[in-house]
């Protein structure tokens, strides 16, 4: 009897233990770990690996361009052939950190996908710091050129006393850059010499970029190729009236030139854009040349070189304060056909104090623009872009009325 009771107690105890084990196992939220007891088969390893796409997603993102060394820059991603083209910048060593901002803007909005070269020109030798820093963020090749002294100095036919007197008078009249010698050298150089520098002789197309400029929208195509495909020669984004006190005799000099060289004036020209009275006077409209994309072969052509030589001999770069913008603009308006000039409405651009911001909200959203419509200079009273639309018989963009003064 005692033995049976002891046997029954064992059975009850075993049942209780079994119930407790089942309860603990079923209530646990932590899965049981399964440790391998042997080396897995090869096919099991392959099956357990993530897909190629998943592996790519797990890889660290490509490091930012700045300040990695040039060798680590991302390759061009845009498809298609590249044009024989380069960016060109006239800068001083002390402009370094302002031109860096401009380069970064160009690279981010366009050139990181195309890797076009960049030519830097200076009337002094570039410093090692300038070369290192600019090379580090340009995705194409960088080239550094010294401007020949004869291209950045007073020609021997200039009366120094007369030129000095003009500078003093302009200073008293508070004309911007009126007393600056270096500004006059710059305007003369950009008008007649930059395209003849040995570093640019290898190229057909140029895009001028200056310190302290910004590009506000993504540029999803190649403007160089567009210019070539559409047979364009010169382009702009901002136009305005020149300060008349800086060019009092420029137009009379132009008229003297065209009178003796009528063969250079295109039949289908844009005279109506630069003159309101069929060429009798100049209305001071010009393309703002701190941005321009153009054909270097045109600037190196005989009509343009003869034109510049006539202006240079007249002395207006030093006896007045002729700018390269009206010089380029007048030449383009007279010597090119209308359809050889292009307005890049879709390239949003700022050079203080003016901004070109494409009209139309949807375009600005699609191209990730950072400019505001109220900043757009195109339709303001001092702009010449509205007149350009009229002369070229172009339809103005929807909503332009809201951006007028």
From TrEMBL:
Active site (catalytic residues): 292 (nucleophile)
InterPro entries xrefs: Glyco_trans_15 (IPR002685), Nucleotide-diphossugar_trans (IPR029044)
Pfam families linked: Glyco_transf_15 (PF01793)
UniProt-annotated stretches for the region Disordered: 29-79
Polar residues bias: start-end ranges: 68-77
UniProt keyword list: Glycosyltransferase, Signal, Transferase
Signal sequence extent: 1-29
Alphabetical list of SUPFAM superfamilies matching this protein: Nucleotide-diphospho-sugar transferases (SSF53448)
GO cellular component: Golgi apparatus; membrane
GO biological process, one term: protein N-linked glycosylation
GO molecular function terms noted in the UniProt entry: alpha-1,2-mannosyltransferase activity
Protein family (similarity comment): Belongs to the glycosyltransferase 15 family.
This protein's name: Uncharacterized protein
Species of provenance: Periconia digitata
Source lineage: Eukaryota, Fungi, Dikarya, Ascomycota, Pezizomycotina
């Amino acid at each position: 009897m005692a033995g049976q009771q002891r046997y029954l107690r064992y059975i009850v105890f075993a049942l209780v233990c079994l119930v407790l084990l089942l309860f603990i196992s079923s209530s646990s939220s932590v899965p049981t770990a399964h440790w391998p007891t042997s080396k897995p088969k090869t096919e099991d390893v392959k099956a357990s690996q993530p897909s190629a796409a998943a592996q790519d997603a797990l890889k660290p993102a490509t490091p930012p361009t700045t300040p990695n060394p040039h060798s680590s820059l991302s390759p061009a991603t845009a498809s298609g052939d590249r044009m024989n083209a380069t960016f060109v910048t006239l800068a001083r060593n002390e402009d370094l950190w302002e031109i860096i901002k401009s380069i970064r803007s160009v690279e981010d909005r366009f050139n990181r996908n195309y890797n076009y070269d960049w030519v830097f020109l200076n009337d002094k030798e570039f410093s090692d710091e300038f070369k290192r820093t600019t090379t580090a963020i340009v995705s194409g090749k960088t080239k550094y050129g010294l401007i020949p002294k004869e291209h950045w100095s007073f020609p021997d036919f200039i009366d120094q006393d007369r030129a000095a007197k003009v500078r003093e008078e302009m200073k008293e009249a508070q004309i911007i850059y009126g007393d600056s010698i270096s500004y006059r050298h710059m305007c003369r150089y950009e008008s007649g010499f930059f395209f003849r520098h040995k570093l640019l002789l290898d190229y057909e197309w140029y895009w001028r970029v200056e310190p302290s400029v910004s590009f506000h929208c993504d540029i999803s195509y190649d403007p160089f190729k567009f210019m070539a495909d559409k047979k364009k020669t010169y382009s702009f984004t901002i136009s305005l009236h020149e300060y008349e006190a800086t060019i009092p005799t420029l137009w009379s000099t132009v008229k003297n030139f065209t009178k003796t060289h009528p063969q250079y004036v295109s039949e289908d020209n844009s005279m109506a854009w630069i003159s309101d009275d069929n060429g009798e006077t100049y209305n001071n409209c010009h393309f703002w040349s701190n941005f321009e994309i153009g054909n270097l072969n045109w600037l190196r052509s005989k009509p343009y070189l003869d034109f510049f030589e006539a202006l240079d001999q007249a002395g207006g770069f030093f006896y007045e304060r002729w700018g390269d913008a009206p010089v380029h603009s007048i030449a383009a308006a007279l010597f090119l056909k209308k359809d050889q000039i292009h307005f890049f409405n879709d390239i949003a651009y700022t050079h203080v104090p003016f901004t070109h911001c494409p009209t139309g909200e949807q375009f600005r959203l699609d191209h990730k623009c950072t400019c505001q419509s109220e900043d757009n200079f195109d339709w303001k009273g001092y702009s010449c872009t509205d007149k350009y639309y009229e002369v070229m018989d172009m339809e103005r963009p929807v909503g332009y009325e809201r951006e007028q003064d």
